Amino acid sequence: QLQKDLEEVKELLTKATRKRLHDVLTTEKHKLELEIKNQPPPKLKADAGEEEKSSLGGYTVKINNYGWDQSDKFIKIYISLNGVQKLPAENVQVNFTERSFDLLVKNLNGKNYTMTFNNLLKPISMEGSSRKIKTDTILVMCRKKREEKWDCLTQVEKESKEKEKAAYDTSDPSEGLMSLLKKMYAEGDDEMKRTINKAWVESREKQSKGDLPMDL
């Protein structure tokens, strides 16, 4: 979530023309970068290991980080797990459906790990899909039913991208800017809301004085 906020602030910075608004956004950008830098790994969160007590023994941790790539025939998802190559092959299980897959890694350093992908962008072949175990990495290979390029992994990601594009693609650039400001205000904390409010009020006050340039 913090990474998405940072990307939106950077996008907003490219459109901001007033110095005060630019300064506010630059401050927020630095704040977000610091938060991301100091954020602990997901598995270290207090509640991550206590989400559910696994019947398999140990705790179950949800995997949130991954990388992906594609070829003409496969979607490839890379999951990093230290020492996974030392496990028996049967401890790494992947179940495929036409539009999803579930990964379960059992008893890795006393914990179990899961990852679920639902609503894949396009259908995959269950029979042609598989997983490979490499050093500190699991490679999940989803065989495409049709050899075509995927723009993203899931239908949800596609819809999200389309909404963001619609927000940016407006005939009036200020409309896209206002849309982002409203989103930042709605999702920001109290300090962020006060900062945006202050910048907005001061900007309007200056605009109301006809003797000042619009870009100040």
What's the structural blueprint in terms of helices and strands?
Layout: H1 2-15, H2 19-38, E1 59-62, E2 67-70, E3 74-80, E4 92-97, E5 100-108, E6 111-117, E7 124-134, E8 137-144, H3 155-168, H4 173-187, H5 190-208
Parallel strand pairs: 1-6
Antiparallel strand pairs: 2-3, 3-8, 4-5, 5-6, 7-8
Which descriptors apply to this entry?
216 residues, alpha+beta, DNA Excision Repair, Uvrb, Chain A, Immunoglobulin-like, 4-stranded mixed sheet, 4-stranded antiparallel sheet, 8 strands, elongated
What does this protein structure show overall?
The protein has 216 residues and is α+β, with helices and mostly antiparallel strands. The chain folds into 3 domains: 1-38, DNA Excision Repair, Uvrb, Chain A (Irregular); 60-144, Sandwich (Immunoglobulin-like); 154-185, no CATH class. Helices cover 38% and strands 26% of the residues. It has 5 helices and 8 strands. A 4-stranded mixed beta sheet has the order 1-6-5-4, with no helix packed on it. Strands 2-3-8-7 form a 4-stranded antiparallel beta sheet, with no helix packed on it. A hairpin with a 3-residue loop joins strand 2 and strand 3. It is found in: Cytoplasm; Nucleus. InterPro entries: CacyBP_N, Calcyclin-binding_UBL-bridge, CS_CacyBP, CS_dom, HSP20-like_chaperone, SGS_dom, Siah-Interact_N. One of its GO terms (biological process) is heart development. Residues 139-216 form the SGS domain. Pfam families: CS (PF04969), SGS (PF05002), Siah-Interact_N (PF09032).
